[in-house]
Give the backbone structure.
Amino acid sequence: MGLVMRRGMDFGELGDVEGALRAEGVGLAPISTGDASLIAGGVTVLATATAADIAEGRVKGLVVPGGAADEAGLAAVRALIDLARANAVPIIAFADGVALAAERFALTADAPVALFRDGAIVEIRDSAALASAVGAIS
């Protein structure tokens, strides 16, 4: 799955979900939203996926964490969400990423995590529900 890199990434109430995603067989490929997004905790992360990977079906889903709200970064996140939606790529959003994705799908959400797929939303409130949602993405 593509991981939208945002400065100050936040996975909200579920904390560090990388382990939970890996337990479901998910590998995360970072997608840049700008140079500042690729530095996490003083470590530079190399982007391993691009928007083309979404459009050409090389990623099974898009993970959108919460993060910094600078306008350039938000524009990049919105563009990636729109691209995933246009290509029927499921989106799992966390923290304020839920509101961003809901806005792009013209839906409302009140959950710490949500799965956006086929124009619908599944609200996720715990790690068991996250595992189930991730397992359903084929």
User: Anything to note?
Assistant: The helical segments are 18-23, 51-55, 71-86, 96-105, 127-135.
